[in-house]
């Protein structure tokens, strides 16, 4: 019994540590989405390398331009990368974005507000992340829409999640 308790405590400690020190994986991203009826939020997180090709601080003109181009591509293509059913008539608007620089690593975090004409629960969302971010390999997607909770690891364009 003691072994079970020690194992449980160790597993919990590892889980807490992993949450505090999130894994930094190039080519990966995480998208969290929450909806209350027809309104919601999207949070996108990824290593900077996945979004604009490098992680060091953008000091040169070339690096600043690459950073701006990557962030612009993300924002310009978000409605294609996260495609709601057309009959919902959803509009996605960026609310905030930041690049968190920590030594040799940087992460991009972007928050979007979503407003639809109809509730999102009961619909299907299609993901096309490679249309806007060519370096992306996989995206962990988590969605809560009213009473529905779903998750999916997206590895290719066209994968969808039914919120039923």
TrEMBL record:
Q: Which InterPro entries match?
A: ZrgA-like (IPR021253)
**Short name of one Pfam family for this protein?**
ZrgA
User: Superkingdom of this entry's organism?
Assistant: Bacteria
Protein's recorded name: DUF2796 domain-containing protein
What is the native source organism of this protein?
Bdellovibrio bacteriovorus
């Amino acid at each position: 019994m003691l072994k079970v308790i020690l194992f449980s405590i160790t597993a919990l400690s590892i889980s807490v540590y992993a949450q505090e020190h999130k894994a930094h994986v190039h080519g990966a991203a995480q998208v969290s989405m929450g909806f209350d009826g027809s309104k919601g939020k999207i949070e996108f997180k990824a290593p900077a390398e996945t979004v604009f090709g490098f992680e060091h601080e953008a000091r040169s003109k070339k690096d600043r331009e690459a950073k701006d181009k990557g962030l612009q591509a993300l924002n310009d293509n978000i409605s294609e990368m996260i495609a709601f059913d057309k009959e919902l008539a959803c509009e996605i608007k960026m609310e905030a974005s930041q690049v968190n620089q920590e030594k040799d690593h940087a992460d991009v975090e972007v928050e979007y507000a979503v407003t639809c004409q109809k509730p999102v629960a009961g619909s299907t969302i299609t993901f096309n992340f490679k249309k806007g971010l060519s370096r992306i390999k996989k995206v962990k997607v988590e969605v809560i829409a009213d009473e529905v909770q779903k998750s999916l690891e997206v590895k290719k364009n066209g994968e969808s999640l039914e919120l039923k």
